[in-house]
DNA sequence: AGACTGTGTTACCGCAAGTAACATGCATGT
DNA sequence: ACATGCATGTTACTTGCGGTAACACAGTCT
């Protein structure tokens, strides 16, 4: 048996799996994360047990679905992070890439950030609590790696890079979530404000007259 | 009718509501956010319909529960934020207060950050997606207000303060979530690393030899 | 032909959210 | 004293989901 050569059946199964994922994608994007397995099966033109044979349980399906989108988003973020420009420009490009993505496809974003749904007690599929939002964790780790590779942070730099990776990703996420809901300013302004924050403007700002500084 | 004077019945109902919330608290802290209404009712020594009369639906109960803990946490954060010290010390004290809280009561933390559970299709109670994590939003707004009151940020300062408020809260949250799961370092180190990030060390760091800067 | 495997179905279980419909203690108005 | 209301409590039910068992039908290999 050649392990690299895939049999026809394997390829057929993979193709089917992709079709099912695309159907699930349509339903989840239409109905939100509480889309039922029945609805997904109907969209795919089949019935429930097939979904369960392919993905185990709802958590498995959602994890597979999330993986696709997460991979796609991470690819575009990596591209922005690796662009030939100086540090500030890269940071702004990365922020802008992320914000553009969530702005263009808010439904995908909602699904990725709040995948913990349908939590029956028997639902051992997703394990909420251990990895709240896999996307955030993965982005944090990737950013940490880039920071650690590119910046000279002295002793303890690796750990510092990880803290910063997760912290910056969290900053981007929370600000983006809030911005997406309220739209208080343009995307460019948001990018600039966040980059300013990362560039130490918080520490550099002067106190307001009449009181102690923050 | 005096609107400020509460009748005996009102006071009794309020007391009962508090008792129910405390029972719910015990169950949620024991079983996680997927605790069933039946289990909560049993813990309180009553049956389901009473819970529904008091809180409408599961979302209402969880919202009330979250409000209690959120208020408590926000109070302690405000205290740290208002301490008589310089800016850096206050930032570190606030970070430390938050991290201590989530470290001491991780179950409460999990509940507050991932309240969207048991999402049946009929569950119109919580409206996931509109307000993902009420705690984060409230912390962001409060911090924004403090920043705007205390710092002189020039024109557009109010908007900048809101972006920063939500961004900093998100940074704290994501880093805390990651730290709570992996415990890669002590709390003090984490606080210091995050404060360093806010103080612009990212921009000030030198490039690594052999490649362009991040 | 007959066994095996992948794909599909119907019909069902268990369980949780949420809802009548009915019972009961207790204060009040006449 | 007695009926009226009202809050508080119950049992029993419906609905709808996740998940599974059991069965049915194609193609393929020996």
What does this structure look like?
Chains A, B: Keywords: DNA-binding. Chains A, B: Residues 14-73 form the HTH tetR-type domain. The structure is a homodimer of 214-residue chains. Chain A has 214 residues and is mainly alpha-helical. Chain A has 2 domains: 10-56, Arc Repressor Mutant, subunit A (Orthogonal Bundle), CATH 1.10.10; 66-118 and 132-199, Orthogonal Bundle (Tetracycline Repressor, domain 2). The first copy, chain A, has helices at 8-31, 37-44, 48-55, 58-81, 87-104, 106-113, 134-150, 157-182, 187-198, 201-204, and strands at residues 151-152, 206-207. Chains A and B meet through helix 5, helix 7, strand 1, helix 8 and helix 9 of A and helix 5, helix 7, strand 1, helix 8 and helix 9 of B. Strand 1 (151-152) of chain A pairs antiparallel with strand 2 (206-207) of chain B, so a sheet runs across the interface. The structure holds a DNA duplex (30 and 30 nucleotides).
């Amino acid at each position: 048996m050649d392990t690299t050569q895939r049999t026809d059946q394997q390829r057929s199964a993979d193709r089917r799996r992709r079709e099912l994922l695309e159907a699930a994608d349509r339903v989840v994007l239409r109905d939100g994360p509480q889309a039922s397995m029945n609805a997904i099966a109907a969209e795919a033109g089949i019935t429930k047990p097939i979904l369960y044979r392919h993905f185990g349980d709802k958590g498995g399906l959602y994890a597979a679905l999330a993986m696709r989108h997460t991979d796609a988003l991470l690819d575009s973020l990596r591209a922005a992070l690796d662009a030939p420009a100086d540090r500030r420009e890269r940071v702004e490009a990365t922020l802008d890439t992320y914000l553009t993505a969530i702005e263009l496809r808010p439904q995908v974003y909602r699904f990725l950030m709040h995948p913990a749904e349908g939590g029956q007690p028997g639902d051992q599929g997703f394990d909420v609590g251990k990895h709240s939002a896999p996307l955030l964790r993965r982005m944090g780790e990737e950013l940490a790696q880039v920071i650690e590779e590119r910046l000279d942070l002295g002793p303890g730099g690796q750990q510092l890079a990880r803290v910063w990776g997760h912290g910056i990703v969290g900053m981007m996420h929370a600000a983006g979530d809030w911005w997406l809901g309220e739209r208080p300013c343009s995307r460019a302004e948001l990018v600039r404000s966040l980059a300013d924050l990362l560039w130490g403007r918080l520490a550099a700002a002067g106190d307001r007259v009449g009181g102690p500084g923050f």
